[in-house]
Amino acid sequence: MTEIACAADLPQDWFPLPLDEDADAFGRRFAETVSQDLREQAQIELSADHVVDLAHDVTAFTRHAQDMGAAFAAVHVPDPTGPVVAVVECLAVDTDEAGWSHDLAELAREVAAPDETVARADVDRVELPCGQAVRVHEITARSEPGGREVQGTAVEKVMHYLPRPEQGATVVLVTSWAALGLAEQLVPMADRIAASLTVD
Question: Distance (Å, rounded) from C-alpha 185 to C-alpha 181?
Fold first, then answer.
C-alpha cells in the first residue's frame, strides 16, 4: 500500500476511526461513551444489546480501515440510539498494481468497467480543490466473505479517484452506506467531504 497523508473536514456526527489503536478496545470505548453521554445529558438509557451492537459495528469498521491501510476513516452516527449509518475511507492505491491509468479519461473508463454486482453507476470528472478526480456514484449488491451475494441487500457508494502520478498512486475516497433511502442526505455529504480533501 502506497503511503500518502490525507485528511478531510468531517461534517457533524461523523467520528474519526483510529488507525493505530486496538479496534476492539476502541469499539467498546466508543459505544460506552455514547451510552454514558446519553445517560448524563438526555436521561436516556441505551439497552445493553444496543451498546454491544454499536461496539461490534464500530470495531468492524475500524478493523476494516486498518486492514486496508486507510489514510483516514470515519463513521457517521447521526442518532446515538441508532446504528452506524455510513462510513468513509481514504486509501492510497498503487496505480500500477491496480492496473489503472493516471489519465483521467482512461481512469474513468477503467473504474466504470461493468461488474455483475453493480446495479447502477454514474461516472463524472470533477474538479476538487486538491486536483481533478473521477467521481463514481454506484449501487452494488452486498456480498458475504467468499463473494456470495446477500439477497435483498445493497450498498450505495460515492467514490472519488484522484490520480497522483508523481507518487505513483491514486487516492481513493469511498463513502458508503446500506440505507438507500438516505441517498438524498448522504450523497451531498460525501461530496462535501471530498471537496475538503487534502493530500500530501
Answer: 9
Residue 122 is placed in which grid cell?
454514474
Structure confidence at residue 68 as a pLDDT band (50, 70, 90): very high
What is the Cα–Cα distance from 88 to 158, expressed in whole angstroms? 9
Angle, alpha carbons 194-109-64 (nearest 5°): 50
Distance (Å, whole) CA 173 – CA 147: 23
Q: What is the pTM of this model?
A: 0.90
Phi, psi of 128 (to 5 degrees): -100, 160
d(CA 117, CA 90): 22
Find out whether 61 and 23 touch, Cβ atoms under 8 Å.
Answer: no
Residue 88 burial class via C-beta count within 10 angstroms: exposed 0-12, middle 13-18, buried 19 and up: buried
pLDDT (mean) for 84-100: 95
According to DSSP, the residues that pair with 193 across neighbouring strands are none
137 CB neighbour count, 10 Å cutoff: 18
- CA nearest to 138, candidates 101, 171, 187: 187
Say which residue the cell 463514481 belongs to: 136
CB of 158 closer than 8 Å to CB of 134: no
